[in-house]
Write a structure and sequence with these properties.
A hairpin with a 2-residue loop joins strand 15 and strand 16. The protein has about 375 residues and is α/β, with parallel strands linked by helices. Helix content is about 30%, strand content about 20%. The radius of gyration is 20 Å and the shape is globular. The C terminus is likely disordered. The protein is built from twelve helices and 16 strands. The strands form five sheets. The chain has an eight-stranded parallel β-barrel with strand order 3-4-5-10-11-12-13-14, surrounded by four helices.
């Protein structure tokens, strides 16, 4: 077989995976309204893509305050828990595992989304950053609105959010998930605490690199205690600086955080890597340092080719390879890799975020192999 590493089975902290293919989290904004409730269409979407050995869901807000974009699902109401059960049942029936990504956007929000002023480690607005709402346009397109100045979080606010992460994790397990991923990447709340340009606090949650990791570590420790360290992962994005997140100290901060996460013995660290054409590449010396400081599973996601994924596993720098847009358009992506088959491309950018119908969501064709001939079967 051409990609022996990618198609190897893998044990993720007790979760036996059928391969090293992971479906990465992708916001699609299809939750039912009112209430931001997961639904049957979402269950069909995830079930189709359970060719992945493990799926990390789209980012899922732990509270209304934690919501930054319209029609994204939550994990804080009984109705949302019931909705997610449709999805976990469908994925498990197809022999795959699924973790829920727990999300709080912090300052990346607007009162036009949820009616609330955003909160953040410091009262610093994210420059040149927008979020989206759906304003009833006939074509269903999103309308982008600028983020608003956040309220600096008090210690009571911090404690409340930690509690919301814990409750979200418990709710996820009740909904049938195999585990949870704490979203500490991409300029959202936890990432805002990690970075010196967005965190100007002078208390125990700011100032030094050690203090800036405190919020992440306290959340992770509390979640791991509540649902099990083997069911807890963390996503980080050391080389991504959009949403006004450029911090010259972030690499040292991330390695320090990895060392502390290693002490908690959580299941994995998931590196969210830039996926645009001229994006910065993660150097091998950083990967080596991360491997030295974190002993459990490491996941790399960021528009990797199968060849790149194969080599990263072969070099023992990562253990699982995440694919996002490849799974979005190719629900049977691993089979296509195995057969070196043609890949579907994105059919309509208007359907990436929102839409409410199957178009651009569950209507991407599968590969049908008949009598040795590869055909697309819609």
């Amino acid at each position: 077989m051409k990609y022996q590493n990618l198609f190897q089975q893998y044990n993720l902290s007790g979760n036996q995976l059928k391969s090293r293919f992971l479906m990465a989290p992708m916001t699609r904004s299809r939750a039912s309204q009112p209430g931001d409730i997961p639904n049957a269409l979402m269950a069909e979407y995830y079930a189709q893509r359970s060719s992945a050995a493990i799926i990390i869901t789209e980012a899922t807000q732990i509270s209304l305050q934690g919501m930054g974009y319209a029609n994204t699902p939550g994990i804080y109401s009984p109705q949302q828990i019931e909705g997610w059960k449709l999805i976990t049942d469908a994925v498990h029936k197809n022999g795959s595992k699924i973790f829920l990504q727990l999300w709080h956007v912090g300052r990346v929000s607007s009162s036009k989304v949820n009616g609330l002023q955003p909160i953040a480690p410091s009262a610093i607005i994210a420059q040149n950053t927008s979020v989206y709402i759906f304003d009833g346009a006939a074509n269903g397109d999103a309308t982008f609105v600028p983020t608003e100045e956040p309220k600096e979080m008090s210690k009571a606010d911090i404690d409340k959010v930690i509690g919301e992460f814990v409750q979200g994790a418990k709710n996820a397990i009740e909904a049938g998930f195999d585990g949870v991923e704490i979203h500490g990447a991409n300029g959202y709340l936890i990432d805002q605490f990690l970075r010196s340009n967005s965190n100007k606090r002078t208390d125990e949650y700011g100032g030094t690199k050690e203090n800036r990791t405190r919020f992440l570590i306290e959340i992770t420790a509390a979640v791991a205690k509540a649902v099990g360290k083997e069911k807890t992962g963390v996503r980080l994005s050391p080389f991504i600086s959009f949403k006004d997140m450029n911090d010259p100290e972030i690499l040292e901060t991330i390695i320090l955080a990895a060392r502390r996460l290693n002490e908690l013995e959580i299941a994995y660290i998931h590196l969210c890597e830039a996926d645009w054409d001229d994006a910065p590449q993660i150097p091998n010396d950083f990967r080596t340092a991360l491997r030295s400081n974190f002993k459990n599973t490491i996941i790399a996601t960021g528009n990797k080719t199968p060849e790149e994924g194969e080599k990263l596993i072969d070099d023992d720098l990562v253990d699982l390879i995440g694919y996002g847009r490849k799974f979005l358009t190719n629900p049977d992506y691993p089979e296509r890799v195995k057969l070196d088959a043609v890949l579907n491309e994105i059919s309509d950018n208007h359907t990436l975020f929102g839409g409410g119908t199957a178009r651009g969501y569950t209507d991407y064709p599968f590969l049908n192999v008949l009598n040795g001939n590869m055909n697309l079967n819609g």
